[in-house]
Amino acid sequence: MTSRPARPALRLGSLVAVMFFTVSGGPFGLEGLVGSVGPGVAVLLLVATPLIYSVPEALLIGELASMLPVEGGYYQWVKRAFGRFWGFWNGWLSWVYSLIDMAIYPVLFLQYLRFFLPGLGRFEAWVVALAVIWGATWLNLRGTRVVGTASGWFVALVLAPFGVLAAVALARWLGQPATPFPTTPFHATGTSFLGALGIGVSQSIWNYSGWDNASTIGGEIEQASTTYPRALARALPLVTAVYLVTILPALALTGWTTWTDGAWPRIAGVVVGPWLGVWIAGAGLVSAFALFNALLLAYSRIPLVLAQDGLLPPALAVTDERGTPRNAVLVSALAYSGFALIPFGGLLAGDVLLYSAALALEFGALLQLRRAEPGLRGAFRVPLGAPALAVLGSLPILLIVLAVVLEIQSREIGLPGVLVAGLLAAVGPAAYLALGGGRKVKEGVAA
């Protein structure tokens, strides 16, 4: 059966909503960034990261997604440019990265659930984490269109209380001209400027990365060649604005040392009132679920396309009448269930490093495809030649390398995370050979 549904599943608005949750999910987590690096460095990172990292990534991914709007997205791009092995390794890096990434969201859900149920035990927490995973799985099995529609509602539910917080905080801030914005100390007490950057760069990148995630459902997007770049052009400003509009006025009215992980309900209570704190805690539950839901949609297409290429059992390539790869979704959910509640916080540098390796392959694929297939064009094309395109692509990669180097220097946990990432990446070639190198191949996008 084909992996494409009988009719296009996602339109522009739904794709923007899915992108929002495959990248951001709202300001949750940024309060910990402020408290750990200091207000000045936090604002610097939230402004500089989208310019240096996200804009180049969105431009290059936008051209690739427009050029090859196919199911499997980045796996297919790299396979077409460099061959089957490199396509597999790109998919492998993304899949391993997803195991670490997806373990985070049930933990975030529990963090905000404990606002309402502070006495939640470990066993109950594990049951709740499984409920989050399998609730998202149920939605995914209903089809891509359902996930897209639900994501649109989730965006509204998450952003509504933060809109109230930002509006009230801004009104109070402007009404008290003597209240300065707290940029002193520029970096957190007890850290140097470079030390604060080392703590914050990886986290800032993590909050701004993932613009290629939704490309894996390229075969399920209406007029994907034009829709994907247009969605990027809307989602990136939305994410950046949500971060800055929420952070700046609230930070001006509260002590930055009170900004710790999970502190948004308390911050809202100080700025507006306890009722808004309860609302934001509820939005935290919605955000964590919506993040897992949207990313399950994206990541589950990797085993689908690997199965189509003979690298995984053929059962994973089967789709239903809506084009939903039910078996791939179920196997993905089982894998993520096995990693639920495992503390991966120390692997953030490794998490970012795995993603950067996959991203570098994708940027290289764009340069190779432009050279080898100059007639292969989509509706969107970055108006730069190959040398300028290479410079543009080097910006996010260099920032990632800087983030990993600084984190290793500033945190004892940074080096183990990088070593684990290196080990997992190195397993990819062995896994390719063990899986037979795709001997029984069902050709999709030609290599």
Chain-wise SSE layout:
Elements: H1 12-23, H2 30-37, H3 39-67, H4 74-82, H5 84-102, H6 104-116, H7 122-141, H8 144-174, H9 193-208, H10 224-252, H11 264-271, H12 274-299, H13 301-308, H14 326-338, H15 348-372, H16 386-410, H17 414-434
Helix pairs in contact: 1-8, 1-10, 1-12, 2-3, 2-9, 3-9, 3-10, 3-16, 4-5, 4-15, 5-12, 5-15, 5-17, 6-7, 6-12, 7-12, 7-14, 8-10, 8-12, 9-16, 11-12, 15-16, 15-17
Summarize the structure in words:
54% of the residues are buried. The protein is built from 17 helices and no strands. It starts with 11 loop residues before the first helix and ends in a 13-residue tail after the last helix. The chain is globular, with a radius of gyration of 21 Å. By secondary structure, the chain is mostly helical. It has a single domain (12-438), classed as Amino acid/polyamine transporter I, CATH 1.20.1740.10. The model is unreliable at 1-5 and 441-447 (pLDDT under 50). The protein has helices at 12-23, 30-37, 39-67, 74-82, 84-102, 104-116, 122-141, 144-174, 193-208, 224-252, 264-271, 274-299, 301-308, 326-338, 348-372, 386-410, 414-434.
Name of the level-1 CATH class? Mainly Alpha
Count the DSSP helices. Answer: 17
Distance between the termini: 20 Å
pLDDT averaged over residues: 87
Order of helices and strands: HHHHHHHHHHHHHHHHH
What's the shape? globular
Write the CATH fold name: Amino acid/polyamine transporter I
Q: Which bin fits the share of residues in helices? A: 55-70%
SSE class: mainly alpha
Number of domains: 1
